[in-house]
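Suppose you are handed only these lines of text.
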Amino acid sequence: MVKFFEKAPYAPVEYAYDVEEILYKGKSKFQEILVIRNEYFGKMLILDDVVQLTERDEFFYHEMLTHVVMHALQHPKKIIVIGGGDGGVVREVLKHKTVEKVFFVEIDEEVINISRRFFPAVSSGVEDPRVEIKIMDGAEFITKRKTSDIDAIIIDSTDIIGFARSLFTDEFFVSVKKCLTDEGMFVTHTESIHFHKDMVIEIQEMLKKVFPVVDLYTAPIATYPGNWWAFAVASKKLSPRETRRKLEISTKYYDEEIHRQAFLTGRLYERLMQRKLEW
Ligand code: SAM
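From them, the structure of the protein bound to S-adenosylmethionine can be written out as follows.
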């Protein structure tokens, strides 16, 4: 059986997936794009040899990246999604009836095209009239924006290397804050709380320099290195731990109890930030 080997970024670990079939292999202006089929995970999207999503478990990540902030907000109307070329986060955002406008800012148009072709169930929301697609660097989009009218900014980028780095700088976080309404919220993935603890801490520290409220929650993702993924969330005043709306959408994993349980306990958070977490 042919295997696909994934070298985990920033960790001395490699994963091997059985490849039943190679469905697509190509190169965009930005990255190598591969679509394979694995018996258990189904179709898998791989960029520069790193697994981005699988048909089987994509909803864990997309629901958890999207619905925590969307339920911590009372009436989210205008949303910016950066990255997420597969369309998974856009699909989840659009489940909320309050949403009037989604700016979908992806640097690589080819990822959107490949996803439409091979992952129609994931990219289903991309054609929605509320969605405006911008093919550009998300950092440029955010820094050029002059109004503070966005309710949620959601970063669904590739790993914090290469062109995704522009989304993890002090200047970018300052611009994000300027784009948000007073009640607005920002969320980004921050890699694995197992393998990338220093990175998780560093992003919390960077956000704390800009936002009064910064927090961290986690979710289980079978196909991301370390399998226990961390998300940083920041706001000008509202706590993201609280849900401010009832669950009125259909989800497979996320619910109000998961929302509460996903946040790191105060004790663990303190130990993490003091660099005393022993794992
Ligand atoms: N959830 C996935 C993961 O963490 O493995 C990410 C999925 S999504 C396919 C990631 C997308 O982010 C890619 O399509 C990539 O082109 C896009 N991206 C990376 N850096 C970006 C940037 N600076 N601006 C806009 N999009 C970016």
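What can we learn from it? The longest helix spans residues 58-72. The chain has two domains: 3-54, 58-273.
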